[in-house]
């Protein structure tokens, strides 16, 4: 993991953040520092409530840190950025719009020079890439959960963002659909390069999709452990069952256990 402003597209530098709650102030991040290189893909894992989703909102400019700074492509993030695409566990597609029109929505909001026909062609190309050709005119309720999530990914990428943030986008899907979407993500990275940040509770998902897995400590969270993965680019599901993958998963599980106990590594 690096934290150089010169080499990383995303830099979180000494960030602390506290929320006001009914029972008082709750600090979720404590001097968090991490970086994601351009076209890199980092998965962030950790105990529930440790501030993983807060990190994504800071990168997107939806929150401002109490301390520290967030940088995106060398510029400090102080407000929402149109160059960030986001996909969540709930696809939140608009039922009164077709799938095609749902995917085109960011192009109606984010300034661009595309004609209406070019916008439609862009959306159709992405839908074809994720296996939804022929479903452009369907309504969200006519699609399965996995198909809706594919459409959500297309919508997040249609305006060619610099950064794609994925906040547990596959968490509500069955195991077979989830694995199919993991393969789809690798195709998207090949055809539509982006810098990615994935929030997940699934350690298999983290090592299959990411170039680096970052384990956050218990709250208030900082980086407890990071693991760079040996292989980049497309992968096969068989690789999740190799001795190397098993060893990596065991290490990550142990790190999560330490984070839940609030212990320092080696304590």
Tags for this model:
4-stranded antiparallel beta sheet; alpha/beta; disordered C terminus; disordered N terminus; 2 domains; 6-stranded mixed beta sheet; 10 strands; 7 helices; Rossmann fold; 267 residues; single chain
Describe this structure in words.
The chain has 267 residues and is α/β, with parallel strands linked by helices. It has two domains: 1-81 and 192-267, P-loop containing nucleotide triphosphate hydrolases (Rossmann fold); 84-160, no CATH class. The protein has seven helices and ten strands. It has helices at residues 52-59, 99-109, 116-129, 145-157, 175-191, 203-209, 243-261; strands at 8-21, 24-37, 41-45, 67-72, 75-76, 84-88, 163-167, 195-199, 212-216, 223-228. The strands form two sheets. Strands 6-7-8-3-9-10 form a six-stranded mixed β-sheet, with helices on both faces. A hairpin with a 6-residue loop joins β9 and β10. α2 (99-109) packs across α3 and α2 (99-109) packs parallel to α4. It is globular and about 50 Å long. The two termini are 23 Å apart. Residues 1-5 and 263-267 have low confidence and may be disordered.
Cα separation of the termini: 23 Å
What is the CATH first-level class name of the largest domain?
Alpha Beta
> How would you spell out the order of helices and strands?
EEEHEEEHHHEHEHEEH
| CATH architectural grouping of the largest domain | 3-Layer(aba) Sandwich
Q: Count up the domains.
A: 2
Q: Give me the number of helical elements.
A: 7
Give the percentage of residues in beta strands: 25-35%
Q: Give me the side-by-side strand order of the main sheet.
A: 6-7-8-3-9-10
Could you state the CATH homologous superfamily of the largest domain?
P-loop containing nucleotide triphosphate hydrolases
Averaged pLDDT: 88
User: Over the alpha carbons, how many angstroms does the gyration radius reach?
Assistant: 19 Å
Structural class by sheet pairing and helices: alpha/beta
Largest sheet properties: 6 strands, mixed
Helix content: 25-40%
Poorly predicted runs are: 1-5, 263-267
CATH fold descriptor of the largest domain:
Rossmann fold
Q: Can you count the beta strands?
A: 10
The global form is globular
